[in-house]
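Hi X.,

You mentioned you wanted examples for the new student's onboarding notes, showing what a folding record looks like when two proteins sit in one file. Here is a clean example. The first protein comes first, with its sequence line followed by its structure tokens.
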Amino acid sequence: MNAPAAAWRFFHPRFWSAVAALWTSGVLAMALAPNARSGWLMRTLGDKVLHGFAFGIGCLLWAQALRTNPKLPRITTAWIGAIIALAVGVAVEGLQKYVPSRTADLRDIVADVAGVLPALAYLTLLEVWRRPKRQTHP
């Protein structure tokens, strides 16, 4: 087993579920906080870049949390992780219209998708590269 794989397996399986749940609650808390001020990170990178980065990370975390289920193929966990991250993004935008000083913005959902797609591509390519090569016989 190589070093990065060993490091990922070091943590207890419930650790990843807890981290993914913490990501979800943190995103909800930050996105639904009324009168939130823009910090230096928001001013430096911009709202849409942070959306993409945050939801790409969410996809990776949820996929890793779901990998602890031996019945699910790894490629399935990647897609479910992407769906969960995007569902959180859509829920946030839907709920923001009820929060004072917040507005729902379709461009935020587009930024979420733009962040999830590279994470999903990474997980998919990682799985393709891990599969053993088929031997062709002459």
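Then the second protein repeats the pattern, sequence line and then tokens:
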Amino acid sequence: MAIKFFLQMVQKQVITIKRSLLIFLFAVSTQVLSAQKIKNGVYIFNIRDIEYHGMIVGKCKAIVKGNHIKLIYLSGNLSLIKPGDIYAEGLLLRHKRTNQWIITSKRGDVNATEVGPCSETGPRTIDFRTKIIEQC
């Protein structure tokens, strides 16, 4: 009788674990799918300058349409650009190794060895979670 009771308890625990695992996998897959594409729209970003101790030096408007992005400079203290000018433009893609969003002109940059504002040859990165784009 004790063995039968024990087996029933184990069976209930296994069912509970299976359900929890299914719920977890569903939640993870939903997050992954939603994280793979940025919704079309207009977003406001702060521009952070890495060389100036991470200081915010301006604002820009990001216009996303499909996998294309255009950044329009809005305001700040950058000297070589004026409000309304295009700050950056290109394809909006996910970098495979770092999983960061990049702005590039070449699809092959998803495999670039380095990315980010201070990289020698890599594409620019953009953070949609913090709404910050960094420059060097």
